[in-house]
User: What shape does this take?
Amino acid sequence: MNRLLCLTLALMLCVPFAFAEAPAELTSITVAEPVHLIGYLPLYVAIHEGCFAEEGLDVTVVQATGGAHVTAVVSGDAFAVIGGVDSYNFANAAGTSDPILAICNCVNRANVYLFARRGLIPGESMADFLRGKTIIAGRYGGSPNVLTRYLVKMNDLDPDTDVTLLENADASTVTAMLKYGQGDIGNGGEPQISEGVTEGIFEEPFVAFPDLGDYAYSVIGVRHSAIEQQPELCAAFVRAMEKALQIVHTDRDTAERVLAIEFPTLTEEGRQAALDRAYADALWAEDAFISPAAVDNAMTVVTVSGLWEGEWDYDKMVDMRFVSHLEDDSIQ
Assistant: This one.
């Protein structure tokens, strides 16, 4: 009798567990990136630290070089893209009924640096130093290329005649191109800088474009149709990014751990140098908000560079309805 009672009690205790509700299935989405950069660390933190999972999302990041990161969203192959508002503006200006809009900040500084091959040191005159040089400038229309052209023009030089711009489609090749003597100056961000300096390929950067201040350099963009048809999905994505941005700002240990996962070939010294540079230059936005000033700064650079003519409209480029602290009741 005691045995039967024990068996009955055991079965009763198991029942709630047998019929417990299964965890909700995560919604899988893809984010396209132009190159794997340390600047995108908040996005990687949101993946590895479970920020997206907490919001019901399973996020995969895919690399699409040569401007394909933007077209991946236009075509619907990716839900979101990380890139500059100027890149989205170019795509929208080409004509589309479903434009890309920025919904979340990430990198709030122009994350591009110029560095010269080993032994080449700039003098007092930037114009004299740049004149006649071969610059590995990145894809035409891409943000590194735009910023390089901006610098050349701001020093009263012509980017078509006073310098030679090598417009490589894949930004990750700049280190190898300088290593094998294909240019005098290159542009890029981390981890290229730490890798190149450590290997003795080039000097420390002589220009740091983060000095330009607030700049909508790498923001999350989605199609307008996603905002209208999947607002809760967009809101969940932004909430996760807000958590990740806070982690990056307040927990360097976690930032270092995720950095080691995403960039396993970078030395410990290189990782520390890269993070030191990022924090010193206030690279990451403190929250998801993209300010009008950050957009104006980016578009002014594109205009001076000669790649954009005319006006721009913040409200047609950015949609901040999902940013938590703005308390917008438009999400139903």
